Amino acid sequence: MEKTRIYNFAAGPSMLPLEVLERASSEMTNYKGSGMSVMEMSHRSKIYDSIFQDAKEKLKKILQVPDEYKILFLQGGATLQFAMVPMNLIPKTGRADYAVTGNFSENAFKEAKKYGEIRLAATSADKKHSYIPPQSQLALDAEASYFHYTANNTVYGTEWKYVPETGNIPIVCDMSSNILSKPVDVSKYGVIYAGAQKNMAPAGLTLVIIREDLAGHAFPYTPVMLDYAAMIKGDSMYNTPPCYNIYILGLVLDWIESMGGLAGMKAHNEAKAAVLYDVLDHSKLFIPHAESEARSLMNVTFRTGREELDEKFVKEATAKGFSNLKGHRATGGMRASIYNAMPMEGVRALAEFMKAFEQSNS
Ligand SMILES: *Cc1c(COP(=O)(O)O)cnc(C)c1O
């Protein structure tokens, strides 16, 4: 028997737009009269090349990527970028600055330490990563090869609302959990990277947008697969790329266009987040984790303050078709991940459930 689709609040992999899944399904066995699935195509074939170039062009257009930047479709997730970034960018001065505002930025910081002298430019660990350090708290090293930060902290539910001023020092940014959720000025960054599984495509594709002059300086021992210059030279096809995921990304980009591009996505995401934060602000039961100025539009974190009540909430929500609301083990409590593909009706339904739960548990 067919089960209707649930509201999936998972932190990642997460929801994809239903329109995208349906279109992929309709093209699954015979893509546009080719007699085969996109999964079965040679990555060097003419037909696949048009899918690949089309996805890249659409991304360039939607994110307004300037011409001096290259778009790469890689593998290994955001986590491999934690190593790839320093291996390519550190050799310049041997030093880099990191802001640690959550667990992924902590992981990036630790990984980078293998490759150079890594300084902590700022941290929010003193308050359980419930806030984002302001510009005035960034201790920047004038000799840093780059400054790294994580745009949205998926686990703690905080998001940077400003792009740090770093002078001539290139900014490297992990945008895994808020890429394509709002307009971004790509020209302010040296490297942007993101795993695909939150806002772009199935897991297995990693997007890198790099200012071209930053490539070509990797440590000599850098594996070719981890050398940005080699990936640029081969147009992400030094070896077989994650072909099907790139095709899905193209479909997701069409969907984003239909939603009014990134300005439309931003309005959609702000409206959704406001519904949940409004419930939290008027609640006597639920306690939000993030300070209000730092609230993420993508991951809404909260708790009741009583573990058994949190458990009861998650259990009852799951029974009603709101899945994956259990918070990360680092924070406990609850987390509602409301990426681009979560519809407003899912958020409204969750808000109603939260209010009803509060009524019957206070
Ligand atoms: C999910 C996530 C990661 C980890 O991504 P992988 O693709 O699993 O390596 C890294 N950074 C952020 C901000 C994330 O949200």
Automatic annotation (TrEMBL):
<keyword id="KW-0663">Pyridoxal phosphate</keyword>
<comment type="subunit">
    <text>Homodimer.</text>
</comment>
<feature type="binding site">
    <location>
        <position position="197"/>
    </location>
    <ligand>
        <name>pyridoxal 5'-phosphate</name>
    </ligand>
</feature>
<keyword id="KW-0032">Aminotransferase</keyword>
<dbReference type="GO" id="GO:0005737">
    <property type="term" value="C:cytoplasm"/>
</dbReference>
<comment type="function">
    <text>Catalyzes the reversible conversion of 3-phosphohydroxypyruvate to phosphoserine and of 3-hydroxy-2-oxo-4-phosphonooxybutanoate to phosphohydroxythreonine.</text>
</comment>
<feature type="binding site">
    <location>
        <begin position="239"/>
        <end position="240"/>
    </location>
    <ligand>
        <name>pyridoxal 5'-phosphate</name>
    </ligand>
</feature>
<dbReference type="InterPro" id="IPR015422">
    <property type="entry name" value="PyrdxlP-dep_Trfase_small"/>
</dbReference>
<dbReference type="InterPro" id="IPR020578">
    <property type="entry name" value="Aminotrans_V_PyrdxlP_BS"/>
</dbReference>
<dbReference type="InterPro" id="IPR000192">
    <property type="entry name" value="Aminotrans_V_dom"/>
</dbReference>
<feature type="binding site">
    <location>
        <position position="154"/>
    </location>
    <ligand>
        <name>pyridoxal 5'-phosphate</name>
    </ligand>
</feature>
<keyword id="KW-0963">Cytoplasm</keyword>
<dbReference type="InterPro" id="IPR022278">
    <property type="entry name" value="Pser_aminoTfrase"/>
</dbReference>
<feature type="domain" description="Aminotransferase class V">
    <location>
        <begin position="6"/>
        <end position="350"/>
    </location>
</feature>
<dbReference type="GO" id="GO:0030170">
    <property type="term" value="F:pyridoxal phosphate binding"/>
</dbReference>
<feature type="binding site">
    <location>
        <position position="104"/>
    </location>
    <ligand>
        <name>pyridoxal 5'-phosphate</name>
    </ligand>
</feature>
<keyword id="KW-0718">Serine biosynthesis</keyword>
<dbReference type="InterPro" id="IPR015424">
    <property type="entry name" value="PyrdxlP-dep_Trfase"/>
</dbReference>
<dbReference type="Pfam" id="PF00266">
    <property type="entry name" value="Aminotran_5"/>
</dbReference>
<feature type="binding site">
    <location>
        <begin position="78"/>
        <end position="79"/>
    </location>
    <ligand>
        <name>pyridoxal 5'-phosphate</name>
    </ligand>
</feature>
<keyword id="KW-0028">Amino-acid biosynthesis</keyword>
<dbReference type="InterPro" id="IPR015421">
    <property type="entry name" value="PyrdxlP-dep_Trfase_major"/>
</dbReference>
<comment type="pathway">
    <text>Amino-acid biosynthesis; L-serine biosynthesis; L-serine from 3-phospho-D-glycerate: step 2/3.</text>
</comment>
<protein>
    <recommendedName>
        <fullName>Phosphoserine aminotransferase</fullName>
        <ecNumber>2.6.1.52</ecNumber>
    </recommendedName>
</protein>
<feature type="modified residue" description="N6-(pyridoxal phosphate)lysine">
    <location>
        <position position="198"/>
    </location>
</feature>
<keyword id="KW-0808">Transferase</keyword>
<feature type="binding site">
    <location>
        <position position="44"/>
    </location>
    <ligand>
        <name>L-glutamate</name>
    </ligand>
</feature>
<comment type="similarity">
    <text>Belongs to the class-V pyridoxal-phosphate-dependent aminotransferase family. SerC subfamily.</text>
</comment>
<dbReference type="GO" id="GO:0006564">
    <property type="term" value="P:L-serine biosynthetic process"/>
</dbReference>
<dbReference type="GO" id="GO:0004648">
    <property type="term" value="F:O-phospho-L-serine:2-oxoglutarate aminotransferase activity"/>
</dbReference>
<feature type="binding site">
    <location>
        <position position="174"/>
    </location>
    <ligand>
        <name>pyridoxal 5'-phosphate</name>
    </ligand>
</feature>
